[in-house]
Structure formats: structure tokens, C-alpha cells
């Protein structure tokens, strides 16, 4: 299942993963030589993050599909879903790079017909990126439950995959929908000011839906990886018993981040940086004794 190829793989999805992996070093090079800035962020940083995320997503879906019974993995519905997933990855990777090269936004950009149509297609593609994991997670859950409690206790990884994928589909859609309904990720904070987390660009001064969206869509990696880590130190039956609470905890963390963003609150930090002092009133100068 962890081989580079398998008979049930969809070639387009494999190609999409390779495209994103090849785009990462190219984007890193562009990031180092192209000093343009968009929305107070290095122009090529957003495409770089998306190339990395899409490559991880594609690989995770490709591997998870191998856990399906062979007859299911070869079914036309599954093949179509994986094909669509790969096609969306390719489109998003190319569109993000094109928009960065043009020096314009890829999301929430209605400046031209091309920008608006391209963004609309990408928004529709985002629906595919959450629908396919959700349906794949349900199929994995059904296949896992058919093996009975004894099968789950012997190998809890398929259950962890199923729960992670179901969470990714549900929470990815809910948090992504919040961003779309809000017209952007920020709530109660000026995106051109305030404190932001390095690399991710998440706001540390107000609400930012991207934090919950990141947690939601990456549940498909977080839950199975946590189960794998526990399997290294605990018996399989114990890990099986912990898998559902683990998934519930990840869902709770994501929903908490979503709720905080909705009311304009930043992520809770153990040692938050101090807020800058408010500006002095125009009538009072630094040397005034009034």
C-alpha cells in the first residue's frame, strides 16, 4: 500500500502529485528571486503553500484508496472521484502559479472576467476537494465495519483513515464555507496591519478562518498519523479504542478555532506578543506636560 504505484491507482492523480512536487523547488527559486509583495506577503509564498498542501492531499487520497476492497477501488465511481480530485489539483496548482506570475490575487478577485471566472472554477474545485475525501471516508468506514470489531482491534489504521477522511470532508466544507460567506478569512482585524504568524500568515490579532480550515482539511493526515504513532507504543486493541476519541478531539479543536474566528478572536497563545501602544492623540506630543 505504500509502494509508489498500485494497479488500482488513477494515473491522473499520480501525475497531479508529481506536478505539485516539481512545482515546489521552482516556486522556492521564484520566491528567492522575485521580491514582489501581494497583500503584505511574498508573492510566491501562497503558491508554495498550496503546492505542498495539494501534493500531501493527493498522496493521502491515493494511499487511502488502496485500503478499499479491490472491487470497490476499481469501481467507476471511485475512479471518477479520484480522476476529478487529480484534475482539480492540477487546475489549482496552475491557476495559483499563473496568478502569482501576473502579480494578482487568486481568491476573491473580480478585477477582470478572467480573474472572476478562474476564481469561480477554483471555488467549485474546492467542493471536489472536500466531497471526494468525505465519500472515500464513508466507503472506508463501511469496508472497515464489515470486518467486525475483531478486525478493527487487530488493525485500527483503516478506521483512523475513515474517520480522518470523514472529518476532512465535513470540516473542510464547513470552514471553507465560512471563508466564502465572509468574503475572506479575516474577522475583526485589518489584514494590512496587526501581528501575523510567520510563513502561514495567520492573524495573531483577530479572527482568521484559515486556522480552522487548515485543521479541518488536514484531519485526513492528522488522525491516521496519530494512530500510527500510538501503534508504535501501544497494543493495536488499545489504539482502536482510542481512535474515536482522538478523532472527536481533533473535530473539537477545529470547531473551537472556527468559533473563535467567527467572533474575531485570535488563536490562544501561551505567551502572546504584546500589543503595540495606541497612538497619541494629535493634540498631545511626546514632550507635552499636559
Question: Could you explain the architecture of this structure?
Answer:
This protein has 290 residues and is an all-alpha fold. It has 2 domains: 140 residues, no CATH class; 110 residues, no CATH class. Helices cover 66% and strands 3% of the residues. Strand 1 and strand 2 form a beta hairpin. Helix 5 runs antiparallel to helix 7 and helix 7 runs antiparallel to helix 8. The protein is globular, with a radius of gyration of 22 Å. The N and C termini lie far apart (75 Å). The C terminus is likely disordered.
The gyration radius over C-alpha positions equals: 22 Å
What is the total tally of β strands?
4
**What is the H/E order?**
HEEHHHHHHEEHHH
What distance separates the N and C termini? 75 Å
Largest sheet: 2 strands, antiparallel
Percentage of residues assigned to helices: 55-70%
User: In which order are the strands of the major sheet placed?
Assistant: 1-2
What value does the average pLDDT take? 90
Strand residue percentage: under 5%
Outline the low-pLDDT stretches: 284-290
Give me the secondary-structure topology.
Elements: H1 11-33, E1 37-38, E2 41-42, H2 45-65, H3 70-73, H4 76-102, H5 113-146, H6 148-154, H7 157-182, E3 186-187, E4 207-208, H8 209-217, H9 219-231, H10 236-262
Helix pairs in contact: 1-2, 1-4, 2-4, 4-5, 5-7, 7-8, 7-9, 7-10, 8-10, 9-10
Amino acid at each position: 500500500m505504500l509502494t509508489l504505484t498500485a494497479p488500482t491507482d488513477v494515473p491522473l492523480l499520480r501525475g497531479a502529485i508529481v506536478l505539485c512536487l516539481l512545482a515546489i523547488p521552482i516556486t522556492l527559486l521564484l520566491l528567492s528571486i522575485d521580491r514582489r509583495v501581494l497583500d503584505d506577503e511574498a508573492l510566491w509564498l501562497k503558491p508554495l503553500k498550496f503546492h505542498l498542501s495539494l501534493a500531501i492531499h493527493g498522496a493521502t487520497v491515493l494511499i487511502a484508496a488502496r485500503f478499499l476492497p479491490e472491487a470497490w477501488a476499481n469501481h467507476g465511481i471511485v475512479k471518477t472521484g479520484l480522476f476529478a480530485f487529480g484534475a482539480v489539483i492540477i487546475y489549482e496548482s496552475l491557476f495559483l502559479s499563473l496568478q502569482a506570475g501576473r502579480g494578482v490575487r487568486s481568491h476573491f478577485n473580480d478585477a477582470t472576467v478572467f480573474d472572476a471566472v478562474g476564481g469561480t472554477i477554483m471555488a467549485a474545485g474546492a467542493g471536489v476537494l472536500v466531497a471526494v475525501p468525505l465519500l472515500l471516508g464513508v466507503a472506508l468506514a463501511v469496508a472497515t465495519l464489515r470486518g467486525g470489531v475483531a478486525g478493527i482491534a487487530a488493525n485500527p489504521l483503516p478506521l483512523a483513515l475513515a474517520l480522518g477522511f470523514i472529518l476532512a470532508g465535513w470540516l473542510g466544507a464547513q470552514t471553507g464555507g465560512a471563508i466564502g460567506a465572509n468574503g475572506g478569512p479575516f474577522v475583526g482585524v485589518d489584514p494590512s496591519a496587526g501581528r501575523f504568524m510567520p510563513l502561514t500568515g495567520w492573524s495573531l490579532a483577530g479572527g482568521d478562518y484559515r486556522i480552522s480550515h487548515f485543521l479541518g482539511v488536514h484531519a485526513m493526515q492528522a488522525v491516521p498519523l496519530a494512530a500510527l504513532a500510538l501503534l508504535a507504543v501501544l497494543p493495536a486493541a488499545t489504539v482502536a479504542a482510542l481512535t474515536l476519541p482522538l478523532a472527536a478531539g481533533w473535530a473539537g479543536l477545529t470547531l473551537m478555532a472556527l468559533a473563535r474566528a467567527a467572533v474575531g478572536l485570535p488563536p490562544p497563545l501561551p505567551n502572546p506578543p504584546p500589543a503595540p501602544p495606541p497612538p497619541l492623540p494629535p493634540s498631545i506630543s511626546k514632550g507635552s506636560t499636559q
